[in-house]
Amino acid sequence: MDLNLQHGHKDLVQAVSFNTYGDRCATGSVDGKMRVFNRHRDATWRLCDTWSAHGGEVLELQWLPASVYPNLIASLGMEGWFRLWAEDPSAAPGRRFCSGRGGNGRPAFDTRSGRAAPYRSFSVKHGHDSANSYVALVATDGRCTVLENEAADNVAEYSSIDDFSVCAKPSRGEEVSFRVRFDPNAEPCYAALKAGVSTDALGLVVAAMDRVCVYRSRNVLASAYGVSQTKKEFYLAVEVRVHRGLVRDVAWAPGNFRGSTLSASLAKSTVTAAAQQDRQAGQVKHTLREISRLDSHRTPVWRVSFDDDGQVLGSTGDDGRLVCYRQTAGGEWAKSSELVMVKARMAAP
Q1: Among 121, 147, 178, 185, which is 20 to 30 Å from 76 by CA?
Q2: CATH number of the structural domain spanning residue 243
Q3: For 212-240, what is the mean pLDDT?
Q4: Is residue 245 one of the residues assigned to a domain?
């Protein structure tokens, strides 16, 4: 299908995100504005809402699952504010996410780092069984904070459940790169469950500078005001050190039917590495196996992502190409297709 969406932003579009069904699209631009488009039955995309979301450029966007009511969009701005935007379906188009005056919307929830280091990446995961939502935020000082929302009907309250250091604080003036992603699967892989990992354990992959760290959560007993309760605590499961440069992006594959989990990361050195991690016996013992090292791009690579089934891996970079990879019968990943944006001058009618 030929899709050319006229987004209407007056500046560069920095972030794009689709909802679960692919019929809603959110865009964020460098000027801090966000727009939401709806796909109609005639396959056309029409503007639903637009508002000023951040004081700086919008770095990342993510829709929460469609099963969560109301519809929620999470965003992160260059100024370090993480914000959740709730839709009011009864409002008129143009005011559904933006309830403030003058196009300045009021978020349902927002937070920023209490330190001098702003947040640079986030990931949101919703547990359908527990109805809890989790937010992971990584800041420029190398610390990762995990928030939890225990009441599904109250999106305005999140509390911190863990805060840990991923890497040493970068030096002043040093180029930094941080990305964080939750395991999108409902449960850990079969190998992890067989080894004794609980079904509600969370998986987290964090790219910090030139390395990638995989964290797993475990339930620990904590005492507050004389009352013992169970809380989640993250521990380092495995560390990946295969990249020679800054890691620009990471992705965790959905569909962990393989019995093990699959993740991919890329560095500015134009190499995409797909790694497979297996859970072995023991409390924190993990093993990592690199299954492919892909070098189809000849320019720096900036984004990597799996499809909804975890069968196709896509990467894109400065060359403007979208390269797709598939797993072969031998287990390795190989290039399967390539999409190129072609600029053509429109002829006068």
Answers
A1: 185
A2: 2.130.10.10
A3: 81
A4: yes
